[in-house]
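Checked the freezer inventory, then went back to the computational side. Two predictions to log before the end of the day. The first one is the construct we discussed on Monday; recording sequence and tokens without edits.
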Amino acid sequence: MDTDQVLSAAEQALARGDVDAGEREITAAWPDISAAPAEARHILGAIRGVQGKLAEGEQLIRSAIADEPQSLRHRIALGHLYAGGDAHGPAAEAYAEALRIDPAWAGLRLSYAIALYKAGRHAEAETAARQAAQEAPSGEAWDTLSCALRAQGKHADALKAAEAALALRPELM
């Protein structure tokens, strides 16, 4: 298999939840992971995150970022790794770095807002969720805004945001 085939097979395995198969694909092709391309380290880092090996996953994804500092994908993966490990402050920082590369990436601002909220940075979460709701109105964006507002004691505004969320996603009721 060539590099693209290995990476594709590993990514497909990860997507279907078969982390062992994904790991086998990567480690068979690159027994010395430090010699692997950034994308392989990225995928193995994501696998390590799913396995609960956050420190190793972080190290792998950060090495991919070091090789490709303008890669939006690697920074988002780092944010997801942190968020999956309940490290929401670092997740917010990783998403913020990704937003500096591409502020228009679909769904990124919402991930940032959620991480900020979960990190207890409610005023910043309000700002990010407001932007997310304006850029791509969704029940989740409005709900995140509502939560951030409620956490700050802005109950009337939180209620309005919750109503906007329900208008888009009545099943939230």
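The second is the one RB wanted added to the comparison set:
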Amino acid sequence: MIYNIVSEEGCPEQRSHVDVITKGKLRSGGSVSFTVPREDFPKNSKIYVGFNFSWEIVKDAKLPNETRHLVYFYSSALPEWP
């Protein structure tokens, strides 16, 4: 799982982080857990993870010109830190 950090101002950070690596497929309704250090998730920031659907991949490669799908996670949705 590679996530990218977006600052409070909306600027992407120049760093990405890897936590989970798998070649397995995630079935509909499934989930993947991964950790994000608190310092990567400052107040009013967000991270995003890119993914592809199985029909967009042929022979372990993404088809050309396919849309990159993103899911965002917002720091405001985290529980309060003590």
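For RB: The radius of gyration is 14 Å. DSSP finds no helices and six strands in the chain. Let me know if you want it refolded.
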